[in-house]
Amino acid sequence: MGVVGGNRGGCVVGAERVLPDKVRLSAVCDIDETVLERWRRDQPDLKTYARYEDMLGSGEIDAVFVATPPALHAEQAVQALQAGLHVLSEVYAATTIEDCWRLIEAVRASGKTYMMAENYCYTRPNMMVLNMVRQGVLGEPTYAEGAYIHDCRSLMFDPDGSLNWRGRSRANPVQGNWYPTHSLGPVAQWLGIHRGDRMVSTATFVTRAEGGWRYVAEHMGSDHPLASPNRMPAGDSATTVITTRRGCVIVLRVDSASPRPHNMTHYVLQGTSGSYLSERWHGESPLVWIKDRSPEGEPQWQSLWELADDFEHPRWKAEGETAQAAGHGGGDYFVVADFIQAVLTGEPPPIDVYDAVAWSSIVPLSIESVSRGGEPVDVPLFRA
Ligand SMILES: NC(=O)c1ccc[n+]([C@@H]2O[C@H](COP(=O)([O-])OP(=O)(O)OC[C@H]3O[C@@H](n4cnc5c(N)ncnc54)[C@H](O)[C@@H]3O)[C@@H](O)[C@H]2O)c1
What is the pLDDT of residues 314-366, one digit of tens each? Predict the structure, then answer.
């Protein structure tokens, strides 16, 4: 495997450690020489490339992990597919609807494996809820929430003081939901999107911009050029509502600028015979209520973990320890393991190009909705 984008791309190393007979990282491409220098120091056998085309044409790799800033993912994935390589793409997959279709076409034309690396689908509670949904324990889903609340203001600047891609997204006047897949991915799997249901329409609303410029004023001085709402105009918090063909409603919130503790894994699921509520902070228990199973009397929450013996996802039962050993809560291991499995068997990966583009399409669709004052817009039918 080769990696493009040598920072987040490093997460392959953990999976390589626990899957040594299946994956070998042999090349890294990055436009930043200091990043390549770090890799050469840590892994002298690794080939390093400053030009992506050189790595694609090297003949040394079978697959690429695309881990550059999001705006580059679609183009770099298409280039790799056209070079005859399998692609594992970081989130999100594409920034425009045109690129969503281009990606689908490139995957179809290449016959190669494409998977989006949405690791939040693989956390232990999210997989356990998926297992419960598939066993019908919660009944028919009707409503779900996902939120990714991650105060990224301290990550907006490179060491030289220039804005990086996270910072530039705060300086971008185009309003929308710019990071939807961590919150949407697990929920889409629970609701069977593309597996019985589909997203139909979506509307997004964005708050005013307060977090970014205030952070700059506080930490870099109120006379800093970016210490003004006009220069950091991206709204702090985006709320997206999605309706589905089977009459479900999904509510997503993405917030990377409000001053508050993180809550990157907020999820809710309501079914006709049960309800799920994720933990609010690390260490708190996720909660569940199941009709005719949870304690009798008035409906009462119980810890999800009390039901682990019956409903732990089989993958977490069998591979949980290995996954944890690979780091980052286990999600990165499952992503790489499922990608490799799909490459080796030729079977579709669990998060295929249709899932990837549908979940990612919330970015351009949210921009369109906000520009029309929050009007609902149709979600394209990517998979007939
Ligand atoms: N799934 C997760 O949990 C998770 C966590 C962190 C980041 N991410 C995703 O990973 C991606 C990268 O995030 P990051 O935090 O590592 O960002 P980063 O800015 O720290 O790193 C991006 C790297 O890409 C390199 N790069 C930029 N343009 C390039 C080009 N044209 N060719 C080659 N290299 C190029 C940069 O030099 C940098 O080293 C993003 O898409 C982000 O959404 C996902």
Answer: 999 999 999 998 877 889 999 999 999 999 999 999 999 999 999 999 999 99
| Closest C-alpha to ligand 1, atom 30 | 31
Question: Chain centroid to CA 310: how far?
Answer: 28
Which residue owns the Cα nearest ligand 1 atom 3?
119
For residues 231-256, give the mean pLDDT.
Answer: 98
Query: Is the C-beta atom of 180 inside 6 A of ligand 1?
Result: no
* CATH number of this structure's domain 2-118, picked from the four choices 2.40.110.10, 3.30.540.10, 1.25.40.10, 3.40.50.720: 3.40.50.720
Q: If 0-12 CB within 10 Å is exposed, 13-18 middle and 19+ buried, where does residue 217 land?
A: middle
pTM passes above 0.90 = yes
Q: Is 293 in the pocket of ligand 1 (CB under 6 A)?
A: no
Relative to the CA of 164, which ligand 1 atom is closest? 19
Q: Which of 171, 175, 178 is nearest to 211 (CA)?
A: 171
**Rounded Cα distance, 333 and 330, in Å:** 5
Handedness of CA 258, 261, 264, 270 (dihedral sign): negative
79 C-alpha vs ligand 1 centroid, how far in Å? Answer: 17
Quick check: CB of 4 below 6 Å from ligand 1? Answer: yes
